[in-house]
C-alpha cells in the first residue's frame, strides 16, 4: 500500500486514455448521469492503492490504517484538490479477506467507519474501478463521491454467497443509489455485474466522447458542495407500492434460499434502509451481520469457497500433481453419442467456443440428436444477449454432425457419451485409438464403469481418462475427472483445463465402481428404499431430505432421472433380471440385503416422469408435478405383507441419519482408499453435482460439524439393527479418527498412511 505522488497520477491518467478498450461508462446502477469526475486534473494528488498485486490479501489492519491516514492527510493538505482510490495491477478490490472472518481478532475490525470517513471527506473522492470491485471493495466505492469504471469491470456484493451480508454500510448505500429493486437483486443473490455487454440504459462512451465529457460541465468545479454526492444523505427512492413489492420479494428470496439464512437477512438489511434513517439502518445491518458471522452457515459457505479452489490443485497418490503437469490446448473436440448426455456436452463445448464434431451411429439417431442439440443451443443463445452471433452454431466449422468416424482424424480430444455398456465402449475406444491422431485425448463419459478396462482397448491408455458429466451437462457445474492406472499427468491436466474452459468445477478422483460421487450415492439411495420397505413413504423420505436443504429428495430425483437407468445397470451387474440364478432370495444378493422394489416398479412400466408414473404419479407422461400415488402405497403394503415385513413408524431423525450417515460413511472409505485426495473433494463433488446444500458445506464438512463420534455411534446402532447392510457398518477410517480424538477436518488425511509410489 502506498500513497502516490503527482507523477503517478499523470501516468495513470495517460494510461487510462491511451490504452484501447478503456472507456468511461455509466454503470447502470452505480453511476448516474452527471457523475463523471475527471481525474486528469493536474492538481489531483493522493491516490490510495486499495489492492495488492493479488487481490486484497494485504493485512486488513494495515490497509484500513493506511486508508484512514491517507484520507486524513489529503483532507489536511490544502494542495490536494481531490482524491482518487484505485486498485493495483488491474483489480480494484475483491473485498475483505474471507479467511479473516474465522479469526476472532479480525472480526472486530470494521470497514464501515472508514467508508463513512471517505464519504465525509471535504475533497471529492473518486473510485476508479478496474477489474473486480466486490464486497467491501464495492462498499468503499459506494462511499466515494464519484465512481468511474472500466468497461470490463465486474462489480457485485457477493457476501451472501459466503453466508454474510455487505457489512460496511453497503446495504444502506446501494438502495439509495440504485433503488430498492436493483439493490435487493444484487445483495440477495450476490450476482456480479459484468459490463462487457452493457445492460440496457448503460451508455458506453468512445474515447473522443470521454474527452468531451472531461471538458464539459460534468466536471465538478472545485469548491462546489459535495453534499448531494454523499449517498448516506440521500433518501431511498420511493416505490408507489413499496410494501407490496417487499412482501413479494421476501417470498421469492425465501423460496430460492432453500434453508440458507443469508439471503433473508440481506433482505432484512435492505428493508431497514427503506424504513429507518441511515444511522439506524447501519446499526441494523451490523446486528444482522453479526448474526450471520457467528452462524455455522457462514463457516460452511466460506469452507466451500476455499474447497472449490483447493481442488484445482490436484494430486494423485502416485505423486502426479497440478504443479508439474501442463495441459495441452484443445482446438477441436468430438462427442460420440447424442443421447441426453452427449447433447448437453456438445452444447457445453459450443458455448465454450470449442469447435465440435458430433457423431452418431446412424442417420436416424444423428438427425434426432442434431434437432435436440439445436434446440438446446437456440435456448442458450436466447439467454445470452448477442448469443446467437457469438455462438455461431450454424457454422459447420464450429459444429459439425456426422456418422463417419474418419472425420475425427484431426480432433484434439474426444468425449465418448454412449450407453453405459462396457463392450460397446471398448469397441468405440478401439476404433478411436486407430483413427484419432496420436496426440488426441480419449475421454469417456461414464458414471461408474472401469476406466482401466476401457483404456485397455486402446494403444494409448496414458491418454484415456474418465470425464463424468452431470445431467443436464450444459448446466451442471461438476465434472468428475477419473484417472486410470496409466493416465498421464498431462491428460489429467488437460481434462482439468477443459473443465475450466467449460466453466465447470473439475474434481480429480481415482478409479473404482461409481467413482466418488455415485459410490457415495449408492448406500444413500439404498437406505431410502429400505426405509420404504420398513414402513416409510417416498414423500416422507423426500420431505426430510428436502427440508435438510437438498433441492430434490431421492425418490423425486429417481423419477426425474428415470428408474430404467439404474435398472439397466443392475441387470448388467447381474443383480436382477434373467441372468439371476434361480432360487436367489428376493431380498438378498451375495449374502447382503437387497430391495427389489425399484426393479418391480420398472417391471410395472413405471420409469418415472417419462412414463408419468414412478415413485409418484404425474399429470401425464413427461409431466413434472409429482403427486403421492395411492397405487404405490397399496403396492408397498402388499409387498410388506408378501415378505412379512413388520411396518413401523420411522421418524425424521432416523430417515435423515440413515440416508446421510451411510453416504458419509462411504466417503470415509473413499478417503482411506485414496480415491479422493481430501474431504474437500467429496464436498465439492456433492455441492456441485448432487444438490447437497452449500450452506451445509458438503457431506464431509457436515460430518465434522455433527461430530464424528456421534456419526460413529449412530452407525453402530443402525448396523446392529441391520447387520446385513454393509453400508451401515462403520468405516475403519471413521473409527480411527474417532479413536484419535475427533481431529479437525483439515487434519484427517494426515491420519492415513499411504504408499507414495511416484510415477
Ligand atoms: C466488514 C465486512 C466487509 C464486507 O462486506 C465483507 C466482504 O467483503 S466479504 C468478501 C466479499 N468478496 C468475495 O466474496 C469475493 C470472492 N472472490 C472471488 O469471487 C474470486 O476470487 C475473484 C472473482 C475475486 C477472482 O477470481 P479468480 O481470478 O478466478 O481467482 P480465484 O477465485 O482462484 O482466487 C485467487 C486466489 O485469491 C483468493 N481469494 C479471492 N478472493 C478472496 C477473498 N475475498 N479473501 C480471501 N482470499 C481470496 C482465492 O482463495 C485464491 O487463493 P489461492 O490460494 O490462489 O487458491
TrEMBL record:
Q: Which GO terms describe its molecular function?
A: (3S)-3-hydroxyacyl-CoA dehydrogenase (NAD+) activity; delta(3)-delta(2)-enoyl-CoA isomerase activity; enoyl-CoA hydratase activity; NAD+ binding
User: An example Gene Ontology cellular component term from the record?
Assistant: peroxisome
Transmembrane parts of this sequence:
36-57
> In terms of domain of life, where is this protein from?
Eukaryota
Kindly indicate where the leader peptide sits in this chain.
Answer: none
Q: Taking every annotated instance into account, which residue ranges of this chain make up the domain 3-hydroxyacyl-CoA dehydrogenase C-terminal? A: 514-618, 655-744
Domain (3-hydroxyacyl-CoA dehydrogenase NAD binding) ranges: 332-511
* Chief place of localization: other
Q: Which intervals of the chain are annotated as region Disordered?
A: 572-591
Reactions this protein catalyses:
a (3E)-enoyl-CoA = a 4-saturated (2E)-enoyl-CoA; (2E)-hexadecenedioyl-CoA + H2O = (3S)-hydroxyhexadecanedioyl-CoA; (3E,5Z)-octadienoyl-CoA = (2E,5Z)-octadienoyl-CoA; (2S,3S)-3-hydroxy-2-methylbutanoyl-CoA = (2E)-2-methylbut-2-enoyl-CoA + H2O
Give UniProt keywords alphabetically. Fatty acid metabolism, Isomerase, Lipid metabolism, Lyase, Membrane, Multifunctional enzyme, NAD, Oxidoreductase, Peroxisome, Transmembrane, Transmembrane helix
Location relative to the cell: Peroxisome
Query: What is any one GO biological process for this UniProt entry?
Result: fatty acid beta-oxidation
> EC number(s) of the enzyme?
1.1.1.35, 4.2.1.17, 5.3.3.8
Q: Pathway, per UniProt?
A: Lipid metabolism; fatty acid beta-oxidation
Q: Which family does it belong to?
A: In the N-terminal section; belongs to the enoyl-CoA hydratase/isomerase family.
- Quaternary assembly: Monomer.
Descriptive protein name: Peroxisomal bifunctional enzyme
Q: What is the lineage of its organism?
A: Eukaryota, Metazoa, Chordata, Craniata, Vertebrata
Amino acid at each position: 500500500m502506498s500513497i502516490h505522488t503527482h507523477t503517478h497520477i499523470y501516468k495513470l491518467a495517460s494510461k487510462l486514455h491511451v490504452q484501447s478498450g478503456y472507456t468511461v461508462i455509466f454503470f447502470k446502477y452505480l453511476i448516474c448521469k452527471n457523475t463523471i469526475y475527471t481525474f486528469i486534473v493536474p492538481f489531483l494528488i493522493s491516490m490510495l492503492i486499495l489492492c495488492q498485486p493479488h487481490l486484497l490479501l494485504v493485512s486488513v489492519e494495515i490497509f484500513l490504517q493506511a486508508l484512514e491516514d491517507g484520507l486524513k492527510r489529503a483532507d489536511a493538505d490544502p494542495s490536494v484538490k481531490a482524491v482518487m482510490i484505485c486498485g493495483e495491477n488491474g483489480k480494484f478490490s475483491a473485498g475483505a479477506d474471507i479467511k479473516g472472518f474465522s479469526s476472532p481478532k479480525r472480526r472486530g475490525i470494521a470497514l464501515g467507519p472508514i467508508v463513512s470517513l471517505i464519504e465525509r471527506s471535504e475533497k471529492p473522492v473518486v473510485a476508479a474501478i478496474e477489474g473486480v470491485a466486490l464486497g467491501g471493495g464495492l462498499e468503499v466505492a459506494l462511499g466515494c463521491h464519484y465512481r468511474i469504471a472500466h468497461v470490463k469491470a465486474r462489480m457485485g456484493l457477493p457476501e451472501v454467497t459466503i453466508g454474510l451480508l455487505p457489512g460496511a454500510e453497503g446495504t444502506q448505500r446501494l438502495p439509495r443509489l440504485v433503488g430498492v429493486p436493483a439493490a435487493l437483486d444484487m445483495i440477495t443473490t450476490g450476482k456480479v455485474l459484468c459490463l462487457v455487454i452493457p445492460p440496457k440504459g448503460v451508455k458506453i462512451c468512445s474515447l473522443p466522447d470521454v474527452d468531451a465529457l472531461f471538458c464539459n460541465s460534468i466536471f465538478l468545479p472545485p469548491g462546489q458542495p459535495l453534499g448531494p454526492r454523499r449517498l448516506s444523505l440521500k433518501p431511498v427512492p420511493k416505490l408507489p407500492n413499496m410494501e407490496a413489492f417487499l412482501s413479494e420479494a421476501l417470498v421469492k428470496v425465501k423460496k430460492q434460499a432453500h434453508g440458507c439464512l443469508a439471503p433473508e437477512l440481506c433482505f432484512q438489511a435492505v428493508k431497514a434502509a427503506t424504513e429507518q434513517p441511515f444511522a439506524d439502518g447501519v446499526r441494523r445491518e451490523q446486528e444482522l451481520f453479526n448474526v450471520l458471522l457467528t452462524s455455522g452457515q457462514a463457516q460452511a459457505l466460506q469452507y466451500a469457497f476455499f474447497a472449490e479452489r483447493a481442488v484445482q490443485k490436484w494430486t494423485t497418490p502416485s505423486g502426479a500433481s497440478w504443479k508439474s503437469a501442463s495441459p495441452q490446448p484443445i482446438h477441436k473436440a468430438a462427442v460420440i453419442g447424442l443421447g441426453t448426455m452427449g447433447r448437453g456436452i456438445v452444447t457445453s463445448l459450443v458455448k465454450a467456443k470449442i469447435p465440435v464434431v458430433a457423431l452418431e451411429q446412424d442417420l436416424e439417431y444423428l438427425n434426432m440428436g442434431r434437432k435436440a442439440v439445436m434446440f438446446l443451443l437456440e435456448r442458450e443463445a436466447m439467454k445470452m444477449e448477442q448469443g446467437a452471433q457469438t455462438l455461431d452454431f450454424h457454422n459447420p466449422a464450429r459444429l459439425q454432425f456426422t456418422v463417419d468416424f474418419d472425420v475425427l482424424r484431426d480432433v484434439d480430444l474426444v468425449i465418448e457419451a454412449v450407453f453405459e455398456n462396457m463392450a460397446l465402449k471398448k469397441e468405440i475406444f478401439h476404433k478411436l485409438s486407430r483413427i484419432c491422431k496420436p496426440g488426441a485425448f480419449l475421454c469417456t463419459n461414464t458414471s461408474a464403469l472401469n476406466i482401466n478396462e476401457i483404456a485397455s482397448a486402446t494403444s494409448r491408455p496414458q491418454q484415456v481418462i474418465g470425464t463424468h458429466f452431470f445431467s443436464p451437462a450444459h448446466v451442471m457445474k461438476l465434472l468428475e475427472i477419473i484417472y486410470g492406472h496409466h493416465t498421464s499427468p498431462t491428460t489429467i491436466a488437460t481434462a482439468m483445463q477443459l473443465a475450466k474452459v467449460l466453466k465447470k468445477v473439475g474434481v480429480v478422483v481415482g478409479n473404482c465402481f461409481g467413482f466418488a460421487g455415485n459410490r457415495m450415492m449408492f448406500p444413500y439411495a439404498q437406505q431410502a428404499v429400505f426405509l420404504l420397505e420398513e414402513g416409510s413413504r417416498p414423500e416422507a423420505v423426500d420431505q426430510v431430505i428436502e427440508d435438510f436443504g437438498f433441492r430434490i429428495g431421492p425418490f423425486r430425483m429417481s423419477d426425474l432421472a428415470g428408474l430404467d437407468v439404474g435398472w439397466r445397470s443392475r441387470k448388467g451387474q447381474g443383480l436382477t433380471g434373467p441372468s439371476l440364478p434361480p432360487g436367489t432370495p428376493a431380498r438378498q444378493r451375495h449374502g447382503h440385503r437387497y430391495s427389489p422394489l425399484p426393479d418391480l416398479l420398472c417391471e410395472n412400466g413405471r420409469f418415472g416422469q417419462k412414463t408419468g408414473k414412478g415413485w409418484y404419479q404425474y399429470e401425464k407422461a413427461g409431466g413434472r408435478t409429482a403427486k403421492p400415488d395411492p397405487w404405490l402405497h397399496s403396492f408397498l403394503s402388499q409387498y410388506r405383507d408378501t415378505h412379512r415385513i413388520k411396518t413401523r413408524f420411522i421418524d425424521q431423525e432416523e430417515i435423515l441419519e440413515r440416508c446421510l450417515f451411510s453416504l458419509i460413511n462411504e466417503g470415509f472409505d473413499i478417503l482411506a482408499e485414496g480415491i479422493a485426495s481430501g474431504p474437500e473433494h467429496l464436498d465439492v463433488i456433492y455441492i456441485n453435482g448432487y444438490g447437497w446444500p452449500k450452506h451445509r458445506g458438503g457431506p464431509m464438512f457436515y460430518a465434522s460439524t455433527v461430530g464424528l463420534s456421534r456419526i460413529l455411534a449412530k452407525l453402530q446402532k443402525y448396523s446392529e439393527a441391520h447387520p446385513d447392510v454393509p453400508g451401515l457398518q462403520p468405516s475403519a477410517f471413521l473409527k480411527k479418527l474417532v479413536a484419535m480424538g475427533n481431529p479437525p477436518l483439515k487434519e484427517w488425511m494426515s491420519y492415513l498412511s499411504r504408499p507414495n509410489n511416484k510415477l
